[in-house]
Amino acid sequence: MATTSECVELPARLRLVLTVGWNAAESFGLPVAGYVIASSLGGRDAGLWAMLGAIWVTAGLRKLITGHVPSLLMIAMVVLTIQTAAAIATGNLFIFLLHFPIANLALCILFAWTARGHSPIAARLAAEVIGLRCPAIHQPRLHSFFQRVTLLWAGIFLLLAASLGALLGTVPISTYVPVWAATTVVLIAAGVGASVLWLRSVLRRFSIGLRFAPASAL
Question: N or C terminus of the chain: which is more exposed, having fewer CB within 10 Å?
Answer without folding.
Answer: N
